[in-house]
Amino acid sequence: MTKAVYPGSFDPVTLGHLDIITRAAKVVDELVIGVLVNSKKSPLFSMEERIEMLKETTAHLPNVTVQAFEGMTIDFARQNGANVIIRGLRAITDFESEMQIAQINHSLDNNIDTMFFTTSLEYAFLSSTVVKEVAYYNSDISKFVPKAVEEKVKSKFSNINS
Ligand code: ADP
Predict the structure, then answer these.
(1) Contact 68, 33 (CB under 8 A)
(2) What Cα–Cα distance (Å) separates residue 141 from each residue in 14, 64, 130, 154?
(3) Rounded CA separation 30/39 (Å)
(4) N- to C-terminal Cα distance for the chain?
(5) Are the C-beta atoms of 73 and 105 separated by less than 8 Å?
(6) What element of type H or E holds 8?
(7) Which of 8, 18, 14 is nearest to 133 (CA)?
(8) Rounded to the nearest 10 degrees, how much is the dihedral formed by the CA atoms of 45, 40, 85, 58?
(9) pLDDT of 161
(10) Ligand 1 atom nearest to CA at 118
């Protein structure tokens, strides 16, 4: 059985993340999305909100679950009995750091491998940061995030900007 973890900040989940989740869920038996508690970043959305948005937008995928995690991805994978870490690659800039992280993780545990999915072309530019920047200026984010997330991002910024 192939069990995978897909770690990230998901602040908020975008259509780029959902594309990777949908494609990964087809090739592994079980996929656990790991939402990172990162003390170095102050997220726009709380952990509960990020988990809720991921659960809502992946509810149609029966082999996908969502969990919070803290610390190293390799430990999160081990705790879940996962043998694969999923990551998405957008540009060459992702490649360099992702390759380094994948190699470190593999040297820490050679039973766990990283599987990369290259971005679908329409999402190559897309990141949670881009979504937040566009929303901050009250521009349209409907092409970047699912409808349920769009509403939540808009209401966050209407609170911040008011
Ligand atoms: P992190 O803060 O670890 O980069 P993110 O939530 O931004 O976490 O991303 C999680 C994973 O999803 C990373 O592997 C990232 O490269 C990938 N990813 C994010 N956006 C896209 C996208 N538009 N297309 C493909 N992969 C993406």
Answers:
(1) no
(2) 10, 25, 9, 9
(3) 28
(4) 50
(5) yes
(6) strand 3-8
(7) 14
(8) 0
(9) 63
(10) 25
Pair 146, 15: CB distance under 8 Å: yes
Provide the token pair at 139: 């521009």
The tokens describing 128, both together, are: 């949670």
Query: pTM of the full predicted structure?
Result: 0.94
Catalytic residue among 90, 106, 152, 156: 90
Q: At what angle do helices 147-161 and 128-136 cross, to 10 degrees?
A: 50
C-alpha 81 to ligand 1 mean position (Å): 22
Ligand 1 center–CA 118 separation, angstroms = 11
pLDDT over 80 (residue 71): yes
Q: Is the pLDDT of residue 109 over 80?
A: yes
Atom of ligand 1 nearest to the CA of 127: 20
Beta bridge partners of 4: 31, 84
Neighbour count for residue 97 (Cβ, 10 Å):
9
Q: Which of 26, 53, 22, 31 is nearest to 128 (CA)?
A: 53
Per-residue model confidence as pLDDT tens digits over 119-154: 999 999 999 999 999 999 999 999 999 999 999 999
